[in-house]
Amino acid sequence: MDVATIALAGGTMLGLGVTAGWLLGLANRVFHVEIDPRVEAVNAVLPGANCGGCGCTGCMLYAEAVVAGTIAPNKCTVGGPSCAEAIARVLGVEVQETWPYRPIVHCRAHDGDKLLIGNYQGERTCAAANLVNGVQGCTYGCLAFGDCVAACEYDAIHIIRGLATVDYDACTGCGACARACPRNIITMVPFKRERMLAVACSNKDFGKDVRAVCKVGCLGCKACSKVSGLFTVTDNLAHVDYDKYDPDHFAGVDVAIEKCPAQGIIFFGKPAAKDLAKLEEVEAPKLVEADFKTTVDKTEWQG
C-alpha cells in the first residue's frame, strides 16, 4: 500500500469524523429541550431512592411532575416532611401538613393461631399460594411466604413465626411491601404519631366462621365501636377511622382495647414520650411484646 492510498484513507476518515461531529452538534441545537432549573433543584433534595412510593417510577420523574404541578410536593414517602418542606422552598409554595406513611399488616395470626392448614406443595410465594384453595383456612390472613420481604429494599419487614412483621426503625414507607401483598392486607397508614392503633385483622366473615379458621381474628362484635367513635365496623370487620385520629376522638379507646375479645386492636410503630403526652386524658394501655396472649387485660405491641 503506497503513501497516497494511506493518505486518502486517513483523509476520508477525518472527513467522516468532522461531518459526524457537525451533524451531532446540529442535532443537539435543533432537538435541545430546555430543562426547568427547578426540576434539577427538586431532584437534588430528593433522597434518590427511586422506590416508586410517590406513584412515579423514579425521583427525576417525580421532580418533573412536582414542578409541572401534577403531583403534590409531599408525596415522597422516603423523604417525609423535611423533604416536602425543602421542595416547597424550591417552588416557593406552602406545603400542607403531612405525615409519613408506614405499612401496617392487618393480620396477627402467628403459627399456632392459624387453623385448618393445608398441605401446600406449590411455589413458595404468596402470589402463587393465593391462587390455590386450602392453603390455610383463613382466606384473608398472611400467607407468610415472604413476597413482601423480597420486595423490600430496606430489610424492614420479616416473616416472624408465620407473620409478616414490620421493623419500623428500618422502614422508609416506600410501600413496596403493600404492593407486593396479593391479599392486600398491608396498608399504608398516615403515622400522625410514632405509634398508631390498628385493627390487626382483615377477615370479613361472620364471627363463628372466623373462629373456625383463626384463634385471634376479629369477630365483628362491635364492642369497640360501641364505646369509641374512633372505630367503625363494616362487613363484620372493625376499622380505625384515621381522619379522626386526634385527641378529640380518643375517649373510650382504652375501653375498646380492653373489651376486644380477640385482643386485635394493637399499637404499631415506635412509642415516643411526646406522643404519650398527647394522650394524657386517656389511660395508656400497657405495652408488651407481641407474644399474642389471649388474655383481655393486655394490649399487644408490634414493631
Explain what you see.
There is one protein chain. The protein starts with a helix and ends with a strand. A hairpin with a 2-residue loop joins β2 (about 155-160) and β3 (about 165). The chain has about 300 residues and is an alpha/beta fold. The chain has two domains: about 35-90, Electron transport complex subunit B, putative Fe-S cluster (3-methyladenine DNA Glycosylase II, Chain A, domain 3), CATH 1.10.15; about 100-300, no CATH class. The longest helix has 28 residues, at about 5-30. α2 (about 35-45) crosses α3 (about 60-70) and α2 (about 35-45) packs antiparallel against α4 (about 80-90). The model is unreliable at about 275-300 (pLDDT under 50). The chain has helices spanning about 5-30, 35-45, 60-70, 80-90, 125-130, 145-150, 175-180, 205-215, 225, 255-260, 275-280, and strands spanning about 100-105, 155-160, 165, 185-190, 195-200, 230-235, 235-240, 265-270, 285-290, 300. Strands 5-8-10-9 form a four-stranded mixed beta sheet, with helices on one face. It has a two-stranded antiparallel sheet with strand order 1-4. A two-stranded antiparallel sheet has the order 2-3. The protein contains eleven helices and ten strands. The chain is elongated and about 95 Å long.
